[in-house]
TrEMBL record:
Transmembrane segments: none
Skewed-composition ranges (Basic residues): 1-17
Protein name according to UniProt: SET domain-containing protein
Any one Pfam family match given in the protein's UniProt record, by short name: SET
Alphabetical list of InterPro entries matching this protein: SET_dom, SET_dom_sf
Stretch list, region Disordered: 1-22
PROSITE patterns assigned to the protein according to its UniProt record, in alphabetical order: SET
Originating organism: Polyplosphaeria fusca
All copies of domain SET, residue ranges: 111-218
Amino acid sequence: MPADRKKRKGRPGKITKKNPYPNEYDYLRQKTWKGCQCDGECDPDCCPCQKDGKQCGRSCSCPASCRHRIRHTCGCIGKLCDASCSCFKAGYACGGRCGCECGHLHLREFPQTEVRESQTLGAGQGLFAKEEIPKGTIIGLMEGTPIRHGEQSSFNMFDLAADVALECRKEGVYFVNEKKNKDSNAVFKYIESSRRREVVLFAKKRIKKAEELSAQYTSPSATPGCVYPADTGDYILAKPDPDVDELWVGKVTGTKGRKLVQVAWLLRKEDVDRYLPSRIVMKLKEDMRDGELIMTKNWDDEFTRDYIVQTVFVEERKPEGQLHKNTWWWTRTYNKKTKTVRGKY
Ligand SMILES: [Zn+2]
Ligand SMILES: [Zn+2]
Ligand SMILES: [Zn+2]
Ligand SMILES: [Zn+2]
Ligand SMILES: [Zn+2]
Ligand SMILES: [Zn+2]
């Protein structure tokens, strides 16, 4: 079951004569993620931008003379703007009046990156810089389709507006793995472009060639993200004993209220030595592959969500192609009661 996302919603600000744009920058209180299609000067009674309590932007079709339009130009001359540009900081792509060479944000050429095996535990694939990326560089756009999310969330959806999420296409910056803000080298940000509201990734520090990119997903509503509490069917990394520096892989098999989760454990190659009878370990050690996990039966635990470190990707079949240590999958099950291993890899 997809997770409930009520937490992110807030009430839209009240539109008054004095404050006609109370929701400017409060992206998830807005209903729209694309400009209005008004013919002439926007009318507060029917223009969706005005009803949303925000200014008209780059993708609105109202005339430049519309008094609700932002009039933002940067002073950058003859270059591609980066995160230090005043347009970017204000949350807008550059427009025709800017002196830079940005053009349309969604048509821009971004630094070269490649998708390969992540260095993050259990993360599967990740995105790496193929060239050095200077601090502030816009690394790429999240591509996808805006859809009504119906209060459900998933790894593939980034919030775009109150009821709308971007269903991300599995390419480019989609492969950026999550790290908390303090440990990551990149940041997601909303930018209003001539196409629609975009989710862009930019370098918050200098990124070396071959370095893996990372950014925080779950964040306050001013920056893009997806709220995704672990739910039934998800795989997690947990630290069940706060005093022992040991991570366990588990599958959430159920939840009780908001706090408790039931988890079935999976054993990594390095775990089987310690937790399985030696006659089984001998056999397993011979043919257990890199990245293979052994699902357990009759070995569940119940604990609070506080012990969950993060959600991870685990395939329930042998992945195609090359097997890696950080691409996790399982096909065999160890039954704790009968002390036997079942299944084939
Ligand atoms: Zn307008
Ligand atoms: Zn309008
Ligand atoms: Zn508008
Ligand atoms: Zn520019
Ligand atoms: Zn600029
Ligand atoms: Zn500009």
